[in-house]
Fold this protein.
Amino acid sequence: MDNYEREVEVADIEGGTNVSEQYKDYIKNNIVACYKRKIKAPLIYLGFVIILSLLSPIYSILWPATIDTSKSIKDQYESNRYISGTINNLYFTGYTKEWITGTSGYYYYTNIGDDIVVVLLTPDTCKQGTPMIDSVNIKGKIYKNNKTETELLSKLASDLNWNEEGITSTISSYNISEPAVTGFFTYLSLTLAIGSGIVALFFVLLYGIFILKPRLSTPVLRLKAYGNSNKLLDLAEEELSMLPQLATEDMYITEHFFIEISSYGIAIVPIDEIIWIYQYSTLHKFLWHHFKISYTLHITANKRLYIKCPKNEKSDINGVIDYLAEANHNILVGFSEENRIEVEKLQGEFIPIRKLLRFLSSRVKK
């Protein structure tokens, strides 16, 4: 709005003779304080994800050790249980591992160093049980024999007419499992950890920018809908520093602006752009006990700007509504179906949908 920008220039020329130190740069300082509070949660969570990644298998799964065929599988197990690389000359044992959804893996055996090692491959890797695989590149987990592998060795001993002591002394008690790394739940865990960590990092960086440059923050950028956001912010700061015309605990009214500064957020709205205000009350109760009633001020402005100022005193909200209604006679006051419909018309909401419905209705009638 040009008249807002002219007011800024006049204020700069005249200077602030009655500037209140309490409200000097009040909006920018509170924007910084607001995002310093908000940055704590994503920062803590990001630290938690980093520590979890270092202490849990997440880090090892993402950056596994390379398979070293010159070392025993036991030594590799002790240094890093997650490995990746190429394994040569794998032979199918004839046995598979079954899961609820069907076959989850095929058991092969191969030589790694001086060990004969059982390797569990996914169905896709081994193409549903290819008898012999010359070479395969996998990512897997080294683990000790469990009940399933003990039963497998017992069956292999029977197939080869060996005793169990003979086969357990020949085949390593450490195995490699590809499904343990490539399974659905592993991917899900990695996706959740990495995805949530990226989201947390994004908010840390975003809030950090808002702290360093409050003029780039969301409350200020919203003013772009009404003109030059920097000039409008300067005018709001100037008017607020000259003492607001009405002030409650977290709501302020200056000559041209309604300003909310609370723990729930910060909003700056030119009064001339407000089109609807009303009060909404909520009764808080637990079981049959009624505790209290809280009051929320709802403000709708042009360019589809909606603001809620929750948990205020009823008298404060009534005072703000009365003042704004007097300052801008075009404001619709109070919640009613007529006001809601009128605001929809003013905002141009649902017009495309209504046009589509009228078109469909006309086609049906024909």
